[in-house]
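Tutorial handout. Part one gives the primary structure; part two gives the three-dimensional structure as tokens.
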Amino acid sequence: MSVRTDTEPTTGSMWAKVLSEVFAPWVLVIVLSGAVAWQATHAVLPATVWGLVIALTSSVIPMGVIVWGAQRGRWDGHHVRDREGRLVPFLALIVLSGLGLALLVVLDAPWLLVALDIAMLVCLLVTGAITIWWKVSMHAAVAAGAVAILAVTYTPWLWTLLPVGGAVCWSRVRLQDHTTAQVTVGSVLGVLVGGGVFALVL
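Part two.
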């Protein structure tokens, strides 16, 4: 992996930072939770409630843990660029996502939402295992996985959103946070593991 260096910001690097933040995993999980919850219920209140259960346990609270740790110097920022620093955030996310899945099952949530949480948790376990020895891109995995899940949930036409995932991959390489191989593998895992598990358990 290339070494990060401090250089004068360019237009390309600025756009890369914007893409990395706007399409960060925690943001996409919130959007995905709401979109799938709507398709599962077609009602504002139930969609909001179920979407919040997933968003809080798989995105908002884990991100709060990450930001809290970054502010205290436990890792190098809210994207946790240092692979060695990713263990605790991954474990926190796995535990909280598992709690969210348990809540969905106990509260008899629509199966579409249970399938979503299962798919995200399995994808998290796989990427987490890989991260122990290689820094696979979570940005790429979540972006590609979200497109796959939305395509299965709504219409295959949503596969046309994959170029957005490509832009996210470009941003991670442009910022020297990942190599081309790491974003490529992340994207493949997102589609095959995230989208594949989701489709299989429906």
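Part three, for discussion. Confidence is low (pLDDT under 50) at residues 1-7. The radius of gyration is 16 Å.
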